[in-house]
Amino acid sequence: MKKWKSALGPKSIPGILLAACAASSAVAGNDRSPLQDPVVDAPEPPNWDGFYAGGSLGYGFGFEDRFGVKRNDILLGNLGDMETDGLYGGVRGGWRDSIRFATGRQYVYGFEVGYDVADIEDSVTGDVLGTTLEGRSEIKDMFTLRFKGGITNRSGRTLYFSSIGYVNSKVETGLDSSAGGGAFAGESDDRRNGYAIGLGVEHKLTEQLSLTGEYEYVNLNSKTVELTDSVTTKSTPGFHGLRIGLNFQF
Q: What average pLDDT score do residues 185-213 get?
């Protein structure tokens, strides 16, 4: 009877083990293994640097100013407290730069100039020396120069900022009597300096176009206004404002 030798003799076992180890090493060293997750680069955060221009529309409200009437520096009476409100809007432009942090956030800072046409006004009526008088005040426009700075969220698309700056406005102050004309009637307009502070948020809709929303407080310098040769009032106008707008980055 013929004896058959096994194809897997003792001498072939070391060779099989070496082959298996080599195959295992080849698979382990293959960077393109189907079991390995592909490397995905993090998206580049939006760019806030450079020049921009835009426009905005706002509503001013909630600032009280007492309208007193003096003649020859003697207080004759107070007509009451005005609380100015109304719309304002205009154009703006600026420049900004940014500092990027390892967390992905950015500190964005820069300067902005703007011009707004305004119709923020109020009037108050009262009696002085038996005469019914109406006092009125109106902010007609605003030129602003601001510094803005803030931090973005992690994606870099939303900027949370604060602002502080200089304001110059045209203010119109008037006093009328119910009888029309008379010794108390008069009007004055002048340009007034002041300051503005604000808090806001800006969100990029596209790489260049962004939507803004902002709260601001504007306070103009107090001034004694001469309405006639002898009649004056002390005017301290201002307002709290909410404004929305669009910016386009170049």
A: 96
Classify residue 11 as left (phi > 0), alpha (psi -120 to 50) or beta: alpha
Chain segment 122-150, per-residue pLDDT in tens: 999 999 888 899 999 999 999 999 999 99
Tell me if 16 is assigned to some domain: no
What number of other Cβ atoms are within 10 A of residue 178's Cβ?
A: 11
Nearest C-alpha neighbor of 88 from the set 241, 246, 248, 247: 241
- Rounded distance, CA 221 to CA 237, Å? 8
User: What spatial distance separates the first Cα and last Cα of the chain, rounded to whole Å?
Assistant: 96
Question: pTM value?
Answer: 0.79
The answer to whether the CB of 85 falls within 8 A of the CB of 112 is: no
CA distance 215 to 239: 11
* Structural domain for 155, as ranges: 50-249
Residue 184 lies in a domain: yes
Report how far residue 159's alpha carbon sits from residue 131's, in angstroms, rounded to the nearest whole number. Answer: 54
CB 46 within 8 A of CB 157: yes
The CATH number of the domain holding residue 110 is 2.40.160.20
Q: Is 206 helix (H, G, I), strand (E, B) or coil?
A: coil
The reported pLDDT for the residue numbered 42 is: 61
Q: Which value, to the nearest 10 degrees, does the dihedral of the CA atoms of residues 80, 83, 88, 93 take?
A: 110
Share of the chain above pLDDT 70, in %: 81
